[in-house]
């Protein structure tokens, strides 16, 4: 397998700021992104409820919820960490696939990778891959990928599958069959590549579990991993001593991202890179480093840890699409 290439090696991660056609168009049109990632979707869409699916920008001692976006916009220097209780996109997968031609317009040989983030039970994820492969069959010039999101910490009674080896392998086995079917019908260059969105791991056995799952799938199935998603079971209070956010469980507990997660994400990239690079069956899996990158220094740290490309989420919400230019051109 040829190792996946993203050039320039900078993109967005799936996030609230990659939900709409307008979001995605702006990300695609930036000359500083080599790929774009759609917000994680499901076959039927996810029931979005802004009363419980929320996010907050915060710094030590100050939290601002998504209901106060004007404050967030006026404080970009300090509000560089986020907490969210959001789920997945309310837009169903089929609708996202219908946006692709609008996004790429009349480009004959689009160079940017379009990463369609998908989640759900294993059989639905495989169905999602088949739907993406149908787009590839109609438009073989496109560069398409599926990112299987196995790591969202915010879904009530649905623990992230990437923390559980049998569930992890079940999803990879399903996607392997779907990819094999597509490979039998499409030119090799048109077969959608496969990635996995991983959660942050915190001890050795978890990394070895993830490596075991990826090795089981072999590099012919998994082309990249996005490392990491948000860190679950995090909580912040507002000045009145109540949770800043609401959530599906009513606790306000959600996933941490932005600057505060950066050291953990770096450690995850480094630990996983060491395992993948040491084995011939996994050494061609590209790591997309994600977590707290907002400047050139953060980008460089991710690359030093082993990332072959770097994704940005919270900083897109805080600074807009121009963050990619800032990262690229910063001295």
TrEMBL record:
Gene3D superfamilies named among the record's database cross-references: Aldolase class I, Dihydroorotate Dehydrogenase A, chain A, domain 2
Enzyme class: oxidoreductase
GO cellular component: cytoplasm
Keyword Flavoprotein: yes
Alphabetized GO MF terms: dihydroorotate dehydrogenase (fumarate) activity
Segments passing through the bilayer: none
Dihydroorotate dehydrogenase catalytic domain location: 78-330
Key words of the record: Flavoprotein, FMN, Oxidoreductase, Pyrimidine biosynthesis
A UniProt-annotated Pfam family: DHO_dh
BP GO annotations: 'de novo' pyrimidine nucleobase biosynthetic process; pyrimidine nucleotide biosynthetic process
EC number(s) on file: 1.3.98.1
Cofactors: FMN
Pathway it works in: Pyrimidine metabolism; UMP biosynthesis via de novo pathway
PANTHER family in the cross-refs: DIHYDROOROTATE DEHYDROGENASE (FUMARATE) (PTHR48109:SF1), DIHYDROOROTATE DEHYDROGENASE (QUINONE), MITOCHONDRIAL-RELATED (PTHR48109)
Protein name: Dihydroorotate dehydrogenase
